[in-house]
Amino acid sequence: MLSLIGKRLMFAIPSLIGVVIVTFLLTRALPGDPAAYFAGPSADKQAIEEIRKKLGLDKPLIEQFFRYTADLAKGDFGNSLTTGQPVATEIRNRLPASAELTLLGLMVSVMIAIPLGILAATRPGSWIDHLCRVTTTAGVSLPVFFTGLVLVYVFYFRLGWSPAPLGRLDVFVSTPPNVTGFYLIDSLIARDWEAFRSAFNQLILPTATLAIFSLAPIARMTRASMLAILSSDFVRTARASGLSPRAVIVTYAFRNAMLPVITTLSMTFSFLLGANVLVEKVFAWPGIGSYAVEALISSDFAPVQGFVLTMAVMYVLINLIIDILYGVIDPRVRLEG
Amino acid sequence: MKRRDFLKTATSAAAGAMVSGPAIFSSAKADARSETLLIVSESGPNNLDIHGVGTNVPGYEVSWNCYDRLIGHEMKAGPGGVPYYDRDKFKPELAEDMTISDMSATFKLRKNAKFHDGTPVTAKDVKWSLDRSVSVGGFPTFQMSAGSLKKPEQFVIVDDHTVRVDFATKDRLTIPDLAVIVPCVINSELVKKNATEKDPWGLEYTKMQTAGGGAYKVTKWTAGTEVILERNDDWVSGPMPKIKRVIWRMVPQAGNRRALLERGDADMSYELPYKDFQEIKANGKLDVVSLPFSNGIQYIGMNVTKPPFDNPKVRQAVAYALPYQKIVDAVLFGLANPMFGASADKSTEVAWPQPTKYNTDMAKAKALLAEAGYPNGFETTISFDLGFAVVNEPLCILVQESLGQIGIKTTINKIPGANWRTELNKKEMPLYTNVFSGWLDYPEYFFYWCYHGDNSVFNTMSYKSPEMDKLINGARMAAATGDKAAYDADVKGFVDLAFNDLPRIPLYQPYVNVAMQKNISGYQYWFHRRLDYRALVKA
User: B456, A291: Cβ pair inside 8 Å?
Assistant: First the structure.
């Protein structure tokens, strides 16, 4: 097992180096001129040159790159110009916000999608199969920001059930002491019930939005893979041997159908983590996606590079976890590994 | 799993997701609420110090409220009775007295003024702060130079509580320039302690925290999320502000900002789309203040160095072909002052901005274009800043459609906000829309920036005319020496010339729109267009 992990990590190193180089070059290739942007509205050419010098952008590209990698080696991602903070700190603060939301969204989604997929597969053509088809189609076809806005409109603006979409906590509730960065967990550790309730209430709508969106791939994949398994020989044998339908579906069929579902899950997770920008925008969520987009709009190099690098590392880690999970679920994978 | 079981779990899961109603406030929190102002806006500061590298406009708001300047402006009744800063009347802020002589101004500081950390404010701090503003480079230094404040030697310590500012030349803009946001007074000892060799002015330190003695201090700042400011109860440079605490949250989604206001959760917001402001105004649940930008104009600019726009007839043809009224109605929902269509017999005023006499007149436009040698029109591109796409995009589409009627085919070129400044600096775009507004509200200041042959960034048209330069320089001289007759003649002269030569076509004077709850009062309009918390009251 350890050698497997080690091998996987070794494979990741070249791709990470590639990511560093490509993001560096890509951000430089962006059309904007950060010096002109940050010199402000009434700057003339000379003022812009002064800013350029201050930012080190007048140096040759190769020198900028070596300086950047040297800083990276020390764990310094540079400073964001738009927010004025060190990028490493910002990502550390913002990643848990995105991760908490995404994980919760995914959990809700799995709790609905997997039973839905299984039921649809066991009764193809029935009303539950149609329900599955309709919800998943609706889920993917509705853009996330639209679902988010509709939820805000109905549950906050019209009904007043949900709290104001103002980020992770109610404005007048103080933040629980930072342990994990996940407010739900941190407030439980601190036994701060008010913060817990506030964090939970704030999470409901964005979680629902994400869940609706990610429902589709998981439910579709569960259904498809269950259908394939259910028509296979060993299931027929199990049925013929008189096992209860429950034992056949849960113990034999479902476990075998899980591999592709797990793969889809990992892809959905990493996709959501980076792509829930719109949800973050709608709910004023201080997450990592909106951070990267804002940086991109203002040609702010450091955060964009930091974001891409963090995402690359996350992908590597998630893939590793998935590989390990494969081994747990399916012994054949373990042997080959 | 049976169907019934599934339904059971599904409904209970759904019910579980719906349990909570709105958060119930404890009574302590209700008190906090009544003394706290909750502001929501699209973007927040990136730096708490206006002297910093690339401090954005929201950062100006923090600086304005957390630092004192020597002097400020009095208020007068503006349009609709809303308090509006009085360009010509100054009032003491940190200085309790100002004496202006021929070539210098002397300021006596309040003896009981203290910084947030309790150290008294002395002349030394004032000099250090002013030295800093003219030395750090970039925007602050540039702004100071607009008032002929360029060298540290101009700031002299007379005694512990007296500072003299020497004038480099006679310039009417020197005193007003001391009342803008940049020349703020900073706690010099505190910042020096935190300065490094590489950063002698301590910009890194003041970026993250306020080191002033103003009416408010920042107690918490999470970049891109929120700023929390608390009142400085020891403030002596003005009447004690009523608001104890300001929570300023960034809500990127305009629709949500509106929902927050309409539900009564947020107290104030600006940066809402014009349509929302129009609707909020119409339904009357909230107070909306709409005031014209002082010394600001949205315009269509043309590059006068290259054909076809080097021909004044073509520029006039464009001016007659623009759909002015449609822009004001459909893009701005009426929230703008028209800068077109003055009656033909109206004489030029000594004022800026003022409307041109151009109107939409397609026949005339066609005739002028034929006269200029383009009877069948021509092709060109119209560019705009995507950072302000809410206004710029529909505006350009209307212009495109209208110019098409006289045969000018335009392609729309959208330029990302980050790139806009670079493009303006290149001065290559043939046709574009932009907005300019000057902090100092004087016609010659606007014209110096936008029409003078010194060719600043904002002379986006590369317009050069010796006659224009003579008039602008003349007006600046006349203003400095107080020669009213010559000043009036020069101002009228350059306005007329600008409207005849027409390198840029004024469209309208934009409005700053602020929406607030009915129980909020005391809003003041400032040249910087940001909020002054010191005057706000929550009933």
Answer: no
**For chain B, what is the largest distance between any 2 Cα atoms, rounded to a whole number of angstroms?**
94
Of B271-275, B422-426, B524-528, the poorest mean pLDDT is in B422-426
> Are A51 and B265 inside 8 Å of each other by CB?
no
Please indicate if any CB of chain A lies within 8 Å of the CB of B1: yes
* Interstrand relation of B409-415 and B379-385 (parallel, antiparallel or unpaired): parallel
- Residue that has been written with the tokens 């500061």 in this structure: B45
Ramachandran class of B123: left when φ > 0, alpha when ψ lies in -120 to 50, beta otherwise: alpha
CB A317 within 8 A of CB A309: no
B67 pLDDT above the threshold of 90: yes
The string of DSSP codes covering A118-142 is HHHHHSTTSHHHHHHHHHHHHHHHS
CB contact under 8 A, A40 and B422: no
Residue B356 burial (C-beta neighbours within 10 Å; 0-12, 13-18, 19+) = buried
Q: A115 in contact with B at a CB cutoff of 8 Å?
A: yes
Q: Which parts of chain A register pLDDT below 50?
A: 337
Q: How far apart are CA B144 and CA A152, in angstroms?
A: 46
The superfamily in CATH containing domain B296-512 is Dipeptide-binding Protein; Domain 3 (3.10.105.10)
Is the minimum CB–CB distance between A157 and chain B shorter than 8 Å? yes
pLDDT for A193 equals 85
Interface subset of B 458-487, CB within 8 angstroms of A: 458
Q: Where are the domains of chain B?
A: 36-271+517-538, 296-512
Torsion on CA atoms B358, B363, B367, B370, rounded to nearest 10: 110
C-alpha B205/C-alpha B197 separation (Å) is 13
| Range with the poorest average pLDDT among B46-50, B371-375, B386-390, B433-437 | B386-390
Eight-state DSSP code of residue B120: B
Dist CA A28 CA A20 (whole Å): 13
Q: Does residue B467 contact residue B264 with C-beta atoms inside 8 Å? A: no
CATH class of the A95-287 domain in this structure: mainly alpha
- In the three-class reduction of DSSP (H, G, I as helix; E, B as strand; rest coil), residue A7 is classed as helix
| Residue range B164-202, pLDDT digits in tens | 999 988 888 899 999 999 999 999 999 999 888 878 898
Which amino acid appears at position B458 of this protein?
Answer: F
Instruction: Count CB-CB contacts under 10 A for residue A41.
Output: 13
Residue B3 pLDDT > 50: no
Cβ atoms of residues A106 and A268 within 8 Å: yes
Residue B339 DSSP one-character state: -
HSE-CB at B18 with a 13 A cutoff on CA atoms is: 11
More confident: B106 or B78: B106
Helix (H) or strand (E) holding A266: helix A255-275
The overall average pLDDT reported for chain B is 87
Contact of B381 with chain A, judged by CB distance below 8 Å, is answered with: no
- A246 contacts on B by Cβ (under 8 Å): 1
Interface subset of A 210-269, CB within 8 angstroms of B: 246
CATH of B36-271+517-538, one of 1.20.1740.10, 2.40.10.340, 3.40.630.30, 3.40.190.10: 3.40.190.10
Mark A213-241 as b/e (b = at least 16 C-beta within 10 Å).
Answer: bbbbbbbbbbbbbbbebbeeeebeebbee
pLDDT single digits (tens) B212-237: 999 999 998 887 788 999 999 999 99
Nearest Cβ partner for B419 among A33, A55, A111: A33
DSSP label at B330? I
Alpha helices (runs of H) in B47-111, residue ranges in sequence order: 57-66
CA–CA separation, B210 vs A38, rounded Å?
21
> Mutation test of the interface with chain A: which of B3, B421, B446, B527, choosing the one with the most A Cβ atoms within 10 A?
B421
**Are the beta carbons of A36 and B33 separated by less than 8 Å?**
no
Cβ contact (<8 Å) for A42 and B139?
yes
